Amino acid sequence: MKERIFLSSPHMSDEGYEMQYVKEAFDTNWIAPLGENVNGFERELAEKVGSKAAAALSSGTAAIHLALKAVGVGEGDIVFCPTLTFSATANPIIYQNAIPVFIDSDYETWNMSPKALEEAFEKYPAVKAVIVVHLYGLSADMGKIMEICKKHNVAVIEDAAESLGTYYKGKHTGTFGDYGIFSFNGNKIITTSGGGMLVSNNEERIAKARFWATQSRDQARHYQHSELGFNYRMSNVVAGIGRGQLKVLDQRVKKKRYIFEFYKRELGGLEGIKFMPSNEWDDPNYWLSSITLSGEVRPLDIFDALETENIESRPVWKPMHMQPFFEKYDFVGTDVSEKLFENGVCLPSDTKMTDADLERVVETIKSLFK
Predict the structure, then answer these.
(1) Domains in the chain, CATH or no CATH each
(2) Which of 31, 53, 186, 218 would you call most buried, defined as having the most Cβ atoms within 10 angstroms of its Cβ?
(3) What whole-number distance in Å separates Cα of residue 193 and Cα of residue 11?
(4) For every one of its 370 residues, what pLDDT tens digit does the chain have, with 9 covering 90 and above?
């Protein structure tokens, strides 16, 4: 059996930055959901993306949940959400007993279509929040989207789980809306094994999110709780991994870009292959290099051929409005997201891949076109 090539797996620094911070947590006995690593990770991540405040949490999903709570989303409220995303974007809407309305993508960005968003506002003028996703590290068209949302005076939450290190017109994704969220799951561009971050320029609301995330424990000698709380704070050990990983983020983005350009150079001339879009205002982190197919070779052919060579690949996300749990909720748009799902392939984009690994992937795919 040939060595496994993964889609996107954890990649610790060669310098061992992560272990330095983890060792410090052990040496000081701060094995808890508080400590210098938690404080430092919040501070350093906020500085990196240009946000005033951050709260380190147990997952990106927890961050979306608290962002929805922070903007006042509650029972019966409508929240617009891209349909082409992972379910973790939509699940917290249900946690708040709110109602998701799914918005189609466009081919120009693979992200939320501004045109479909406008149509959704015409249909549902009383909207509490809009969640925007930056899919696979590609920035949504934040200029148009923010203009529409400001016109309708609605809160914006950016799901930048996949786009840490991506810029829109020179500014980090996750910092345009009222709140931004990042994920450090094991497959993300930097990882803490599991964890997330909520960022905002509203320091008071971030402090409130930290309060909710620590079981809403009031400042009292005894245990007192005046609000519903959650067990969402990040561990000091996990935060230490994050501090170390943050030091190599730029290296990881550089390698992801190298992988994308390699695939584009080697596969771009094959009939029916089209790469995920690039725009002049978008500087992606290329978290996953993704393609669509329009010829005789179909996604399943590529999945099977790669798996035979012990190489991992994945379909593009199945749209939320096509999911059994969410299909009862409304969808606004055409069939763009469905076509991207039907024709899309996410190629292995692991930052530990060598040129020989990339050649294995490329030659396996090329063999299908001969």
Answers:
(1) 17-246 (3.40.640.10), 248-367 (3.90.1150.10)
(2) 53
(3) 10
(4) 899 999 999 999 999 999 999 999 999 999 999 999 999 999 999 999 999 999 999 999 999 999 999 999 999 999 999 999 999 999 999 999 999 999 999 999 999 999 999 999 999 999 999 999 999 999 999 999 999 999 999 999 999 999 999 999 999 999 999 999 999 999 999 999 999 999 999 999 999 999 999 999 999 889 999 999 999 999 999 999 999 999 999 999 999 999 999 999 999 999 999 999 999 999 999 999 999 999 999 999 999 999 999 999 999 999 999 999 999 999 999 999 999 999 999 999 999 999 999 999 999 999 999 8
Enumerate the active-site residues: 188
CA 366 to chain centre: 30
β-pair type (99-103, 331-332):
parallel
Pairing of strands 99-103, 78-82: parallel
- Cα-based torsion angle of the residue sequence 178, 184, 189, 193 in order, rounded to the nearest 10 degrees: 180
CB proximity list for 101: less than 8 A, separation 6 or greater: 78, 79, 80, 81, 120, 124, 127, 329, 330, 331, 332
- What is the C-alpha to C-alpha distance for residues 222 and 205, in angstroms, rounded to an integer? 25
In whole angstroms, how large is the CA radius of gyration of the chain? Answer: 21
